[in-house]
Design a protein that fits this description.
heterodimer; A: Rossmann fold; Rossmann fold; globular; B: 297 residues; alpha/beta; five-stranded parallel sheet; 11% strand
Chain lengths: 302, 297
């Protein structure tokens, strides 16, 4: 998604005069085009993320629209208090962009993963999160964020290849219909549902994708599906606390949509203490491949 | 000792009648501001008095002698905001009657600066180590807007413990943001001890200099020293290409004997006798300062 993001930022520069792009000294072989296009409006703030975020708040206070880019943990966690105090409390339109949300940085290891970013960001006041699913989503999301007067966090990840027509980016999207089980997913990990190699199991799943937090009201179609199928599974490349499963369960209660079973598939961290690719970590957490298939078979086939 | 760092070609302006008048005016203002915030603290039975007394002259000087209307001020040491509220009321930027609500339920004037409530307070500070970065951001923003506005930031010395302060310092110096003026309230007392005992800052001027700042030290309670700073630095801003860092040597709880240079003055409120005594001492000090200014003129 990083390349699509860079292209979208370059395209946006042609439409607006208030953009400033700030990086925390990352983006080799990725941000060069932005740097060239943005000129004096491209700022490498150095490896100094606390300053980077407060700096962006100051830029926003002066009427600019700053985009602050780094590897997800370094934009979401390192400057957390600056995000909370200078950006969110003041309701300033600072656009935080975390690349590699989840296990996106794979073999780089735990320090470069972000399995808590959605939770950390979604509890902040005034903050709206955007989580694209496909490469095509990214440009749409960038344009939506540019129009959004709130502070935002964009979680970039390796985009999913969905072998079906995906509707345009939206807070709620039905990706496919299915027979017996509603799966609500966050971000590209949803794509793994299409790669289990079990068409019959896939036919059982009605798949929905969440794109933004706070969660919008559940759409009527989704409630109808839940009431009909009575089984809900969530899937997210994120720890359980404060992630999609918890957010959705509140929404379900609030809107009186009561499934008979509710299963959360989520990141487990590093249970074996070993490291690997993004895919390897997903499989270890039951979020991909045979492990995911087994988890879903348990739910669907009992 | 209070040092005043000079550079080639700089001479202190000779004292003139107008300079004397300016000093007298500032002295009157700070006396009034101090009376206002002491009354606020007394009414609220609140602490942070020493912090406000430490920077009262600096605040008055910035507002009335150095900053232009379009310039922006960030009180990074937000715990001294009572002095800033009083300053705003004194300048009619805040309804003086609102000062009576300080600390009270439903007030716009909490113990540390409010969020998005008062135009002259662009950021709610108080969490230390934010102000300088915020100024840096606004300063870059102004440059991009082709504006010549300036951004003044008053930090405490204790908040120089924060790594973020030095991140901001690196950035400001690297980008030669001469539209930022960084003032450090160097009262040498922080949370529960002296700055040199807790986490030593000295040699502070050498550190700031090495970071790329044009460093000036002043007596932060003496308007003559502050006015000389203004004149020297207005030239430095255009000629040196290094952003300014002003070490404002001050005394926590300045001017009130029972508070002066004590950690306790960060925390403790005044009882009735202390308040009466404080007002007396303030009046005596004010009279002496006026006489000093007249003599100098």
């Amino acid at each position: 998604m990083r390349d699509e993001f860079a292209q979208a930022m370059i395209a946006l520069f042609g439409e607006r005069s208030d953009l400033v792009f700030v990086t925390g000294d990352v983006g080799y072989m990725a941000l060069e085009g932005i740097a060239q296009t943005y000129g004096e409006r491209f700022i490498n703030a150095g490896i100094a993320e606390q300053n980077m975020v407060s700096l962006a708040a100051g830029l926003a206070r002066e009427g600019h629209l700053p985009w602050v880019y780094s590897i997800a943990p370094f934009v979401a966690f390192r400057p957390y208090e600056q995000i909370r105090t200078d950006v969110c409390l003041h309701r300033l339109p600072v656009k935080l962009v975390g690349n590699g949300g989840g296990y996106g940085y794979g073999i780089m290891g735990a320090t470069h993963h972000a399995l808590e970013d959605v939770g950390a960001m979604r509890v902040l006041p005034n903050m709206r999160l955007y989580v694209p699913l496909t490469a095509t989503d990214v440009g749409q999301v960038v344009n939506m964020m540019a129009q959004d007067p709130l502070p935002n966090y964009l979680r970039l990840n390796t985009s999913a290849g969905i072998p079906a027509e995906v509707p345009p980016f939206a807070p709620w999207r039905r990706i496919k219909r299915g027979r017996t089980t509603v799966v609500v997913g966050l971000g590209p990990v949803v794509g793994n549902l299409f790669e289990m190699g079990d068409e019959e199991l896939l036919d059982d799943l009605e798949i929905w994708s969440v794109g933004t937090f706070p969660l919008d009201e559940l759409p009527a179609d989704l409630i109808a599906s839940i009431e009909e199928k009575r089984r809900v599974v969530t899937i997210e490349e994120h720890y359980l606390p404060c992630g999609l499963a918890e957010a959705l369960s509140y929404r379900l209660l609030r809107q009186r949509a009561y499934p008979q079973s509710f299963t959360s598939l989520h990141a487990k961290g590093y249970p074996s203490g070993r490291y690997g690719s993004q895919r390897w970590h997903q499989e270890e957490s039951g979020l991909a491949g045979q492990a995911l298939r087994s988890e879903l078979e348990r739910v669907v086939r009992g | 000792m209070i040092g005043f760092r000079r550079f080639a070609g700089e001479d202190e302006q000779p004292l003139t009648d107008s300079r004397t008048a300016e000093r007298l005016q500032l002295q009157e203002r700070v006396f009034s501001v101090k009376k206002r915030f002491l009354a606020m603290y007394k009414m609220a039975n609140a602490g942070h008095i020493g912090s406000s007394l430490s920077c009262a002259e600096i605040l008055v000087f910035l507002k009335h002698a150095w900053m232009r209307d379009e310039d922006t001020f960030i009180l990074s040491k937000g715990h001294a905001v009572a002095a800033f509220y009083a300053l705003l009321a004194e300048a009619n930027a805040l309804d003086p009657r609102e000062l009576d609500t300080f600390y009270k339920d439903g007030t716009r004037l909490p113990a540390l600066p409010p969020v998005n409530a008062i135009k002259e307070i662009p950021f709610a500070t108080g969490s230390l180590g934010h102000g300088l970065s915020l100024c840096a951001g606004m300063a870059v923003g102004a440059i991009l807007n082709r504006s010549e506005r300036r951004f003044f930031c008053l930090t405490s010395d204790g908040e120089l413990d924060e790594g973020s302060t030095w991140e901001a310092a690196l950035f400001i110096a690297h980008r030669k943001l001469t539209n930022v003026v960084w003032l450090i309230d160097r009262n040498r007392i922080q949370g529960i001890g002296g700055t040199e005992e807790v986490l030593a800052l000295e040699p502070l001027d050498a550190k700031l200099d090495a970071f790329g700042f044009h460093v000036v030290a002043v007596d932060g309670h003496d308007f003559a020293s502050l006015l000389a700073l203004r004149d020297a630095c207005s030239r430095a801003l255009t000629s040196q290409g290094r952003p300014l860092a002003v070490i404002s040597n001050t005394i926590k709880g300045h001017g009130i004997r029972h508070m002066q240079d004590t950690v306790a003055s960060h925390y403790l409120p005044m009882d009735d006798a202390q308040y009466t005594q404080a007002l007396d001492e303030l009046a005596i000090a004010h009279a002496a300062a006026l006489a000093g200014a007249r003599d100098a003129g």
